[in-house]
Amino acid sequence: MGRRAHNKCIETAEYGQLMLATQGHIRQVLADARAARGVSQQRLARVIGVNREAMRDRLNGRTQTKAEEIAALAAFLEMDISEFFPPLVAS
Fold first, then answer.
1. Which one of 40, 54, 67, 69 is CB 3.0 to 4.6 Å from 50, fit for a cystine?
2. What's the confidence (pLDDT) of residue 8?
3. CATH number at residue 51
């Protein structure tokens, strides 16, 4: 996203709410994928190079999941990365 588009996003959307909604969506996608595939927190943690406690913090919403972590998780779970992001509605 270019600077102008990013600034427009901040101006037209409640950026904090968008961030919270996106992180919540990411957590739900991971929870669903873990349940469907029987993948442990420990295994996800290894994929992104953190310990189980750090992964738990991401899954519980105490720590934001970084873009590069989402990319690694999507590849590991054989999912399209777009599934990790909620659809945006223009205001």
1. 54
2. 58
3. 1.10.260.40
Q: What is the pLDDT of residue 81?
A: 96
* Residue 90 in domain: no
Q: What is the 3-state secondary structure (H, E, C) of the chain?
A: CCHHHHHHHHHHCCHHHHHHHHHHHHHHHHHHHHHHHCCCHHHHHHHHCCCHHHHHHHHCCCCCCCHHHHHHHHHHCCCCHHHHCCCCCCC
Q: Would you tell me how many other CB atoms lie within 10 Å of the CB of residue 54?
A: 15
- pLDDT tens for 18-75 read 888 899 999 999 999 999 999 999 999 999 999 999 999 999 999 999 999 999 999 9
